[in-house]
Amino acid sequence: MRYILQKLGFYAVALWAALTLNFFIPRLMPGNPVDIMVSKLATKGPVTADTRAAIAAMLGTDTQAPLWQQYVDYLHALVSGDLGTSVAYFPASVNEIIGQTLPWTIGLIGISTVISFLVGVGLGTFAGWKRGSWVDNLIPFTTMLQSVPYFWLALLLLFFFGSVWPVFPLNGGYDVYTFAGPELSWGFISSVLYHGALPALTIVISSIGGWMLGMRNMMVSTLSEDYILTAEAKGLRPGRVRAAYASRNAVLPSIAGFAISLGFVVAGSIVTEAVFSYPGIGSALLMAVNSNDYSLMQGIFLVITLAVLGANLLVDLLYGVIDPRTRARS
Amino acid sequence: MFLRTRPGRYRTGGALVAGIVTSTLLLAGCTGGSSKDTSTSDASGATITVFNGSTGTITENFNPFSTTALQPTLGVIFEPLYWYNLASDADPTPLLATGYEWNADGTQLTIHTREGVTWSDGEPFSAADVAFTFNLVADTPALNTTGLAATAEATDASTVVLTFAEPSFMQEPNVLGNRAIVPEHIWKDVADPVTEINSEPVGTGAFSVESFSSQSYMLQANPGYWGGEPAVKHVRYVALDSADAASAALVAGDVDWMSAFLPGLDDIISTNPDLGYVNTPALTASIFTCSDAAAGCAGPQTDPAVRQAIYYALNRDQLNKLAGGGFAGTASPTLLLPERDADWIADPDDVEAPASADTEKAADLLDAAGWVEGSDGIRTKDGERLSMTIQTVTGWSDFISLNDAMTQQLAEVGIELKPSQVSWNEWNDAQLSGKFQLSLDSIGLGASSNPFFTYDKWYNSANTVPVGENAIAGNASRFSDPAVDAALAVARSTDDEAVQAEQYAIIQDVITEQLPYIPIYVNSMLTEFNNSRATGWPTDEDKYAMPASWKAWDNGIVLKTIKPTN
User: Fold this and answer.
1) Is A280 inside a domain boundary?
2) B16 touches chain A (CB under 8 A)
3) DSSP assignment, residue A161?
4) Number of domains in chain B
5) Structure pTM?
6) Best of B67, B192, B220, B464 to mutate (most A CBs within 10 Å, chain A)
7) Which residues pair with A63 in a beta bridge?
8) Which residue range or ranges hold the ABC transmembrane type-1 domain (chain A) (predicted)?
9) Residues 6 or more apart in contact with residue B532 via CB below 8 angstroms
10) What are the Cα distances from residue B54, in Å, to B57, B199, B241, B442, B547?
11) Residue A102 falls within a domain, yes or no?
12) The complex's ipTM?
């Protein structure tokens, strides 16, 4: 119990620190949202000195207020669950934008990260268990794929499977030519799966190598431990030795890595979404940064922060279950 | 949205990506037979798909007063009184009005509204709606982006009188051509017109909203449209995230109308007989200089001789080939468009900027101003090297190429350019606050083709501020000249074009000498069409509207003009 409380206390402090950074970092960027909006309007048509006043009034942004007061307002709004109004997507609220985009990102990147982890760790276990098998020989190839820059790989796959052999669609989250909007039908769901297949494939291909290599090497070193020898000497079934003795110990570093990569699901989606025009949160973040949209940036960073902290907390607790040593020490 | 900051010009991330895109397009072009058929949802072929630059998620906003409204809100769903075609020098086209006249001192504008127009919900349109719209704007500071100070009154069912506090001839294009008219019977009950998203817009335009989702939305033809129901029945708007995605979608036949700079455009067109394009250069790419030392600008560019030398030392033909893809038009030192505005340019010598470099003249200018060649080939004066930083935005590949080419061209006359690439925000911030020496940017479109809007915005000393403050109104160069200010004041107070032209001649004399904005060329504005589902798009011969798919107001004209192919 004390272990859990300690952990929770630590995470509360980390959360506060992250929220404070989250407040200050966007404000260190050059420019402010009103000027940026005016400049963007100016490329489309005439603006006058009154435009600035009108936009400032419209956005209700009081960037002249002292920083500490903005900070207090920010914390207060966060506590009451109000993330504010987006400037880039005015007058939509930040909650609305995140609600619209986050499911796509979690759906695509979350699921492909989990698939990549499960398949990678599974294959890695096997490769470590039976060294020299065909799975083992797969590892150099997958690590090579991982070292290829992601956007390059994604563009190549899109080029071959989207343009040359149009097996997969070129862009979008679903077939906008058939469905007017999201609906609950088999046709729509299969369209979403079909559109998500290629982006998901690129993520799995480009990240599976790391999991495999890490897991395989941990398996190899675990297999040389004395307790494995003891287990084998006791005459346990090979399957039990592999699962309960070898891989349970070997998987620990991978789980820590998995927690971190889960946290970065939200942040790491920008390139995928740009290449495949996927309607997720990455493109909203890009848009927010380019418009100095503090509220939206803070909202998305908050989601990222919560995701990273939440995933870490979960893994910390999970670690206590898998590895009793971490509990005992506290 | 950063893609939208320079409308219609999409840039790929780097040479690597550009290479892939080109080859993608070429190969895709060769396998054109594999293009998938996307008109399955509508067998009649009367649906066309538009990409207007939206990226990522689309948020619903059909509020014509909002600066972030979805682009078809203006012109397609809601209409203004008149429509100004900035692609030609034609007179404005009457839409919801049929005539207007000013009183002698420019304080009263009488507008005659069109009869027989109905709103898309069936209610009749009248002058009262027009009066309501203008009063709403004047009474709500947050909506008043054009500084309109007028009270409107409907004197009868088809006449509105706008009364201004001061002579306001120059408000004319904004009042007539840049203000969507909304129905009084709906908007009088809107609680907050600033944050209203108007999800079921009732307008007078040729189309109304059929369905909306965060990834695409559909408009349908308005059967009761006063100009007759448009031939195209459905228009779909889609979001694509990058230039690569947009070009692939165009080649695959997924998009019928879009505006983007595509590498290897001629190859794409020649292998896809359904595709066509039109080029309407309109934005003058220029070197913005921080020109006024008195306002706090620092650097050699505050010397007019240096700016003139740069102007003459540029080889614009070469720049167009290297950076403009050969699509750019010729710029004018008067900052007007030579093709459209020739009548407004007083001195025939000022119509077009020189195409090739005149290094002798540039060198003479610098010699006369006391800049002498130093040991490293760069000129100096009183210990100051003739070296300037020029900023542009990371990823704007054509501007980056421009900087590189100009660096070489200017080195020949002893001027050193130091190109720097910064983020859009930083670039914009530096330009507004005057903390730059040279900056690459474009001169945008005015409210009408009257040069007043260009000259007032960029040269009026009332529109500038000292370095350190933000020159939001336009004059980023900090340029200030009493003769220009006086001429602008005269031009503002009259609607007699002959008088205005005389004043513009004065301004042109000053600015072609001072060159606070050094024109390079008029950047291409390429718009691509797919002719297999609709025809009648604007062409080089018939620019009946600005063809760019992101251009508000003009879109409504194009969409009601094109015809579906059978």
Assistant:
1) yes
2) yes
3) I
4) 3
5) 0.83
6) B67
7) none
8) 102-315
9) B253, B274, B565
10) 8, 18, 8, 21, 17
11) yes
12) 0.78
